[in-house]
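PROTEIN DESIGN WORKSHEET
SECTION A - STRUCTURE
LENGTH: 130
C-ALPHA CELLS:
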C-alpha cells in the first residue's frame, strides 16, 4: 500500500502469474501500489517509474527483501521486466538487480533466466557461490 502496509494475496505455494509461464512455478510476485506518473487513461503519455513510490513503500520493500534473504539465502530477486518476454510485464519501474546490489544487501543474482531459459537449481547456485 502507499502507506507501506504489506498485504498478502495468493499463497506463495500457488506460484506467480506476473511473469512468463515458464517461471511461474518457481517464483512469487511482489507488487507496489503506484508506479505510473499519470492516470492510466492518459496512455501513451504515462510512463512506468518508481518516482511515485513513497518512503514507506521503500522501507517495506527493504524489510521484505531482508526477510526474503534470511529465509532463502541463495534466492535471486528479479523484476517482472526481468522475467517477461515480449512485453508481458514492465514492472516494477526500477532495476531490482541494481537495488539488491547496493547496501544493505550487496547481492548479485546468480543467473539470467530469460537468456538461460530457467532458474538455477539449488546445486547450481551453490556451485556459483563457491
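SECTION B - SEQUENCE
RESIDUE ASSIGNMENT:
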Amino acid at each position: 500500500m502507499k502507506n507501506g502496509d504489506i498485504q498478502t494475496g495468493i499463497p506463495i505455494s500457488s506460484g506467480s502469474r506476473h511473469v512468463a509461464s515458464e517461471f511461474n512455478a518457481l517464483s512469487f510476485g511482489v507488487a507496489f501500489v503506484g508506479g505510473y506518473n499519470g492516470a492510466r487513461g492518459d496512455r501513451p503519455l504515462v510512463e512506468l517509474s518508481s518516482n511515485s513510490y513513497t518512503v514507506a513503500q521503500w522501507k517495506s520493500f527493504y524489510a521484505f527483501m531482508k526477510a526474503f534473504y534470511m529465509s532463502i539465502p541463495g534466492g535471486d530477486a528479479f523484476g517482472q521486466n526481468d522475467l517477461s518476454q515480449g512485453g508481458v510485464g514492465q514492472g516494477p519501474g526500477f532495476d531490482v538487480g541494481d537495488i539488491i546490489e547496493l547496501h544493505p544487501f550487496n547481492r548479485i543474482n546468480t543467473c539470467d533466466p530469460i537468456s538461460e531459459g530457467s532458474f538455477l537449481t539449488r546445486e547450481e547456485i551453490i556451485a556459483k557461490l563457491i
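SECTION C - NOTES
The radius of gyration is 15 Å.
The chain has one domain: 12-129.
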